[in-house]
Design a protein that fits this description.
By secondary structure, this protein is α+β, with helices and mostly antiparallel strands. It folds into two domains: about 60 residues, no CATH class; about 130 residues, no CATH class. It is about 40% helix and about 25% strand. The protein contains four helices and eight strands. The strands form two sheets. Strands 6-5-4-3-8-7 form a six-stranded mixed β-sheet, sandwiched between helices. The longest helix has about 35 residues. It binds zinc ion.
């Protein structure tokens, strides 16, 4: 037998006493209190665990701004190529216009029917081409000039990526293949993006 404090009046009473001799507080109430406290702790632990799982899920699905650009481009590509393609490699090319505006072009390397293919988009989702469609018979109207510029950009991106994988440090881009975090430092650079989170 040990002495405990009555939760009602605070006087010391036996823990075996069915009721407090001082105020009449019933021991069964004490048990109820214990159960409520226990249930509270249990739901607290459950809530903590659920939050933990939620945080893990959010972290696993969290995409960096450039990963989001790749994800959006891949969605656009699937509209063109259908769902039976698989993304192999992705890279983002950052450049700054003469007006100081930051722009991004996205190059996707994907597999379709066991063939490796390329596609490029700008960060507004516009398809820039696949780097193979250069048409020299095009005139120089404003629209075609844009198409020629797009082709040139896609070919430059493609060459930069191929050279990077070949270990050749020769590219149109002043800072070739830096991390996304480092990219903020440069007006012009290329970033290789992990495709693990891209579906
Ligand atoms: Zn009491």
């Amino acid at each position: 037998m040990s002495l405990i404090k009555c939760p009602e009046c605070g006087k010391e009473i036996s823990d075996k006493a069915p009721r407090c001799p001082n105020c009449g507080y019933e021991a069964s109430k004490r048990k109820k209190t214990k159960i409520i406290v226990f249930a509270g702790i249990l739901s607290g632990i459950t809530l903590f665990f659920l939050c933990f799982v939620l945080v893990i899920i959010i972290l696993l699905n969290h995409k960096t701004p450039m990963e989001k650009m790749v994800q959006n481009s891949y969605k656009e590509l699937k509209k063109i190529e259908g769902p039976f393609i698989s993304l192999e490699t992705a890279s983002v090319y950052k450049y700054t216009t003469s007006e100081g505006e930051e722009k991004y072009d996205i190059l996707l390397v994907y597999e379709k029917n066991n063939t490796e293919m390329y596609a490029a988009f700008n960060n507004d989702g516009r398809f820039l081409g696949d780097g193979n469609t250069h048409n020299s018979s095009m005139g120089y109207s404003e629209k075609n000039a844009q198409a020629l510029l797009d082709d040139f950009n896609v070919i430059s991106m493609k060459m930069a990526l191929i050279n990077y994988f070949l270990g050749i440090d020769d590219s149109e881009y002043s800072e070739n293949f830096v991390t996304e975090k480092e990219a903020v430092k440069y007006d012009e650079c290329a970033v290789l993006i992990s495709v693990k989170k891209i579906k």
